[in-house]
Write a structure and sequence with these properties.
With 139 residues, the protein is mainly alpha-helical. The chain has 7 helices and 2 strands, in the order ααααββααα. InterPro entries: HTH_MarR-typ, MarR/SlyA-like, Tscrpt_reg_MarR-type_CS, WH-like_DNA-bd_sf, WH_DNA-bd_sf.
Length: 139
Amino acid sequence: MNIGLLLYIPYRDLENRIMAVITEAGYDVTLAQARLLQRIGPDGTRLTELAEAAQVTKQTAGFLVDQLEKAGYVERVPDPTDGRARLVRVTEKAKGAAPVAEAEIARIEAEWERHIGKRRMTQLREALEKLGEITDPYR
């Protein structure tokens, strides 16, 4: 099995488990919407930047933002640096999901650490952070 698939399988499990607890907590978002929400910066992000970061078309990002806006998870606000542009910003409703997701991530990481051991988990994190230096274009 190639390394990409070996990296993807645990990530997919983590993502599915996070989505399950988010849904159980009453946050009605799809996986595609959640992936877009994750990429919105603390001060808001332009739609074109969201589309690029999520690796979707601007039309797809716009559609997802429309859905999220109708559900009350995001709002569009004027960009203070460019009067012609708008920023997509998360609302307090969306921010409420963060602690739910963070708690599940902590549970999952603890489970993984129990399974592979503290030393290996530390090494895994260090190796992935190092790989991020050459693979993460948004770093």
